[in-house]
Amino acid sequence: MATLGGDGLRLLSVSGPEPEPESAVLNGAGPGLCCWVSVCSCLSLACSYVGSLYVWKSELPRDHPAVIKRRFTSVLVVSSLSPLCVLFWRELTGLQPGISLFTLMGFRLEGIFPAALLPLLLTMILFLGPLMQLSMDCPWDLANGLKVALAPQAWAQCLTDMRWLRNQVIAPLTEELVFRACMLPMLAPCTGLGPAIFTCPLFFGVAHFHHVIEQLRFRQGSVGSIFLSAAFQFSYTAVFGAYTAFLFIRTGHLIGPVLCHSFCNYMGFPAVCAALEHPQRGPLLVGYALGVALFLLLLQPLTEPRLFSSLPLCQLLDRTGDSATSLCS
Q1: Which of 39, 58, 241, 267 could make an SS bond with 204 (beta carbons 3.0 to 4.6 A apart)?
Q2: What are phi and psi of 2, to 5 degrees?
Q3: Whole-model pTM?
Q4: Residue whose C-alpha is closest to residue 106's, from 318, 252, 305, 304
């Protein structure tokens, strides 16, 4: 028996009349090699994703429409090719998941409606305080607000706004595809599901450090403030990455993390300081506390695996001989 980590990759001989040979699951690659290949593959994906943003030489800032359009092209190319990295990893390690690559990456129709709605609902509950704050500061009442939000003209304006498309569509889709759908299947057989939830976001958090380059280049603050801001951004993107990795594993779908990512990009980081100085500070703080409490209370029930049918990553670990964890039940 070869073991790596607490709930990592185990190659076990199963007692029974006709045990499946190890080579049927892991053809010749030991756990050490599997982990090295997994980490190097994830690192190459992260570098490729960030590097694609800088293949275009420009003196313009990142929010300029011309820069955004060019980056759309390179990021979409890298993201479209990212499943090939998972295929290459599978060939190098000899790991046979027993399910299709796209199913493993969360592209499946089975259970798609609860996988789309429940994680988004859970995330909105967490943002109960900021949503209350947004409604209090909104110049429209609920009826007029819904009318504006659902107006075709408003959506047409959004779809022609390059910043909106980047923040609400392209970034959530491509980042979740690369940093969750591609990386988690490669990391999970090496580390186990639990550690993978916290390992995967490290690549995601580090990938956001490239903003430091642009801030220094355009002198958007002092060096100290820029690096302090980068450290803060790394912290909350890593926490958010762990959350969406948890959602990906528990639902077996990519759509939930993508929708939650888009929603969080729209909401931004909660303006706690503004809430403390708000005229209706009392109700707002209650909303903030209630949102966090309900989120923690509903985190497990709303991501119950039985709601989403089979879980591809759990099936993958079953194939490698790893025992199921609490994340799979």
Answers
A1: 241
A2: -110, 130
A3: 0.85
A4: 252
